[in-house]
Amino acid sequence: MRTISYENEHGQFLTEEETQKTQVFTRIIKINSIIKTKEEFFNGELHNVLFYQEDETIDEIFNQYPELKGIDIVKRKDVQGNYLREEIFGHHRNEGLKLHSFNIDNTFTGKTICFGDYNLQTGNIILKSVMKIQYDHFLNIAYHYYYNSSGKIDRIEEVSGERGYNEYSESYYNNVLPLFPEIILI
Q1: Torsion angle (degrees, nearest 10) of CA 26, 106, 76, 123
Q2: Where is pLDDT greater, at 44 or 103?
Q3: Residue 40: strand, helix, or coil
Q4: Do 11 and 141 contact (CB within 8 A), yes or no?
Q5: How many other CB atoms are found less than 10 A from the CB of residue 11?
Q6: In the chain, helix, strand, coil percent, each to 5?
Q7: 10 phi and psi angles, rounded to 5 deg
Q8: pTM above 0.85, yes or no
């Protein structure tokens, strides 16, 4: 079964009617409750697509979106507890792979908790590209954590003004690694 939902740029759910007013939103298409595409719209026009690849070739994916010059192709890679690591490959039509990044999602909440880029030559994580996200009680983004090239906190950006809450230890946010949080049992 195919379902469609919408989110604003902060990951908050929108109705289809609200998308007409905001002009900046993501349309999420799921097949059998599993995300197949995330289509990002700016000023009401399709700007970017995250396509969750299964058996499709790169050309078949680009043929579904002839108006786009680039598409992000996502592969689900690693599951640890309630967390899923996805790898994203940024392809440009006729130019090939231009970006390789990762995303860690909490499968229980559906929220991204961490993302960053890999060095295309070495395959290593670019530490200063990583951002971790802390949410409040309502699952709205409370803080963004940015890191320096040593993997230590560079700055913290307050987003919602609400006190962040989750089950992760402070050490999870203090450093880029580990990417997956350790769960504290109470």
Answers
A1: 100
A2: 103
A3: strand
A4: yes
A5: 16
A6: 10, 55, 35
A7: -100, 5
A8: no
User: Which residues touch 110 (CB under 8 Å, ≥6 apart)?
Assistant: none
**Which residue type sits at 142?**
A
- 6-54: per-residue pLDDT in tens? 998 877 889 999 998 888 999 999 998 889 999 999 988 999 999 999 9
| Average predicted confidence (pLDDT) for the chain | 90
Q: 175: which 2 tokens?
A: 């450093």
Q: What gap in Å lies between CA 119 and CA 39, rounded to an integer?
A: 26
Count other C-beta atoms under 10 Å from residue 30's C-beta: 15
Per the structure block, which two tokens stand in for 26?
């993501």
What distances in angstroms separate CA 73 from CA 29, 50, 53, 105, 180, one per listed residue? 15, 6, 6, 16, 22
